[in-house]
Design goal:
four-stranded antiparallel beta sheet; 12 strands; cell membrane; membrane; alpha/beta; ABC_transporter-like_ATP-bd; Rossmann fold; about 25% strand; Oligopep_ABC_C
Length: about 325
């Protein structure tokens, strides 16, 4: 088996506040190989996006990576800055942001932004760069790419802007793509088209992808492995089929049980009670225990990761095979 392209080990990213640090990412460990798709799943506020930003070196003050390791193709990324980081970010590692306006400059035409993205990392003429931009826009389902290149971002719809952002991320043929809710702004038909293109890219070019999402249906159809986050921690990870068919952590089981397609008609949707805890005042021990139907006194102490083959879960009382706890 080949060595991981990306190896994250006990990553900690904190945001300083007046009262106490917010541990947005608290000891996250995961790995990703070339040609593999890892689905990073969890509710809003669980730390998924901050994990992606940390890998890209995009965490701004008052946030910072305070511990752990991020190794890409054997190179430690934690501590890199400036020109050293540019050798990787945008060229070998790219990110698709949830909000395309985080990617696009509102005062520059699309062709200017795309050509600059190519020329910043490759020795390429403007004519060749423009042709590559047309191909990339066509690949993500944009018709009349020549006309779109002459547009400013405000002249495009939200869905069109997101497709342009995806096209920019693909321009330099990266080895790793971190996709943060990449199809949120797209209609169902275009979502399917983009996800099919992403899957083709992974299979044909051996690109690794970290797909950050709360949509389990997307993960089930695309990801090879799933890592479930809650309150800044990975609470379960393993092969997609195994995690979805037989979740071990109660939180994972709750996410799966709440998917509408798994519920019977004319019955109320199942839901996990309560809300994600405040990251400034996490419960002691397992942060999920106030919402967990299996919680006992032992859950007030921190659980350790349990491993079974290539699967792990962090729970004192894991869900048993065929056990239903969210009925």
């Amino acid at each position: 088996m080949t060595d991981p392209l990306l190896q994250v080990d006990r990553l900690q990213t904190h945001f300083e506040t007046y009262s106490r640090p917010v541990k947005a990412v608290d000891g996250v460990s995961l790995s990703l190989r070339s040609g593999e798709v890892l689905g990073l799943v969890g509710e809003s506020g669980s730390g998924k996006s901050v994990t992606g930003f940390s890998i890209m070196g995009l965490v701004d003050h008052p946030g910072r990576v305070v511990g752990g390791s991020i190794r890409f193709d054997g190179q430690e990324l934690v501590g890199l800055a400036g020109e050293q980081l540019r050798r990787y970010r945008g060229r070998r590692i790219s990110m698709i942001f949830q909000d395309p306006m985080m990617t696009l400059n509102p005062v520059l035409r699309i062709d200017t932004q795309m050509v600059e993205t190519l020329q910043a990392h490759q020795d390429i003429s403007r004519a060749a760069a423009v042709q590559r931009c047309r191909e990339s826009l066509t690949m993500v389902g944009i018709s009349a790419p020549e006309a779109r290149l002459r547009n400013y971002p405000h002249q495009l719809s939200g869905g069109m802007r997101q497709r342009v952002a995806i096209a920019i991320a693909l321009l330099n043929d990266p080895e790793l793509i971190i996709a943060d809710e990449p199809t949120t702004a797209l209609d169902v038909t275009i979502q399917a088209q983009i996800l099919a293109e992403v899957q083709r890219l992974v299979e044909q070019k051996g690109v690794a992808m970290m797909l950050i999402t709360h949509d389990l249906s997307v993960v089930a159809g695309l990801a090879d492995r799933i890592a479930v986050m809650y309150a800044g921690r990975i609470v379960e990870q393993g092969p997609s089929d195994a995690v979805i068919s037989a979740p071990r952590h109660p939180y994972t089981a709750g996410l799966i049980a709440s998917v509408p397609s798994r519920n019977q008609r004319r019955q109320r949707l199942r839901q996990i009670p309560g809300m994600t805890p405040s990251m400034t005042h996490l419960p002691e021990g397992c942060p999920f225990h106030p919402r967990c139907p299996k919680a006992q006194d032992l859950c007030r102490s921190e659980p350790e990761d349990s491993w079974q083959g290539n699967r792990s879960w962090r729970c004192h009382f894991p869900v048993g095979k065929d056990e239903s706890i969210w009925s």
